[in-house]
Amino acid sequence: MLNTILQNVPDGAEVLTEGEPVEKTLSIIELISSGGFAGQIIIAILFLLLVAAIYIYFERLFAIKAASQVDANFMNQIKDHVSNGKIESAQALCTQVNSPVSRLIGKGISRIGKPLADINTAIENAGRLEIYGLEKNVSVLATISGAAPMIGFLGTVVGMILAIFELANAGGSIQMDVLASGLYTAMTTTVAGLIVGIVAYITYNHLVVKTDKVVYQMEANSLEFLDHLNEPS
User: Fold this and answer.
1) How far does CA 205 lie from the centroid of its chain?
2) How far is residue 206's CA from residue 161's CA, in Å, rounded to a whole number?
3) DSSP secondary structure, 7-68, as one string
4) pLDDT tens across 148-202, in order?
5) How many CA atoms lie within 13 A of 116 on its CB side?
6) What is the rounded distance in angstroms from the CA atom of residue 90 to the CA atom of residue 102?
7) Rounded to an integer, what distance in angstroms lies between the CA atom of residue 84 and that of residue 90?
8) In what helix (H) or strand (E) does residue 99 lie, and over which residues does it extend?
9) Which of 199, 217, 213 is nearest to 57 (CA)?
């Protein structure tokens, strides 16, 4: 009988003998769906946090890049206008450029004629507002980077509770398929939470570096403007 079966098997085909293990594959969707309702809720929350983190990152990245683009000849033109007494032309140039640096210089130009300390204070106050605008929603990324792993660990705890509950109601017989749902919840939420946290942490630090460069640019141009005003005529 066995010889007859083997004769009917095509050449090159693999014959699975009885008891031979069959390799199983598991897709991401199957892995999430196997985690139970609690795991799916936590995964959905983490997915929303990931979408929010990516959106905030690219929105702020484009805004910061736009803010850092200042014409290299901008300050030279401002100093020429101020030296020649063309205050209105200098203000018009700042309005035309419309960047954080130009708004700071424009604030200083509007205070020309007052003591240098007052001009410096006005520029510093305007600078704080500009920095606040550049850092808009960036703190949300820091919150997501810390909250996402904790939400994932919450799923781990929920999954382990479900696994222990199923084990307690198994009547003393331990079966892996009974524990599978809770274990899937525990593992998938942990991985998802760490992934979202890592993405948010990296994007947050990248935006901080980009923002610091713009702040340095603002400070350098403000000092250059104040030094020009302090030069003897």
Assistant:
1) 8
2) 38
3) HTSPTT---PPTT--------HHHHHHTTHHHHHHHHHHHHHHHHHHHHHHHHHHHHHHHHH
4) 999 988 887 877 777 677 666 766 565 666 556 566 666 788 888 999 999 999 9
5) 10
6) 10
7) 10
8) none
9) 199
- The DSSP line for 169-200 is TTTT---HHHHHHHHHHHHHHHHHHHHHHHHH
Terminal Cα-to-Cα distance of the chain (whole angstroms): 112
The pTM for the full model equals 0.74
pLDDT, tens digit, for every residue of 90-113? 888 888 887 888 888 888 888 888
- Which residue from 231, 222, 229, 216 is spatially nearest to 103, judged by alpha carbons? 222
Angle at 66 between CA 55 and CA 148, to 5 degrees: 25
Classified as helix, coil or strand, 112 is strand
Tokens 């309005």, residue located: 95
- Phi first, then psi: what are they for 201, rounded to 5°? -65, -45
Question: Rounded to 10 degrees, what is the CA torsion of 104, 121, 230, 115?
Answer: 120
Asked if 38 and 157 count as a contact pair (C-beta separation under 8 A), the reply is no
Identity of residue 193? G
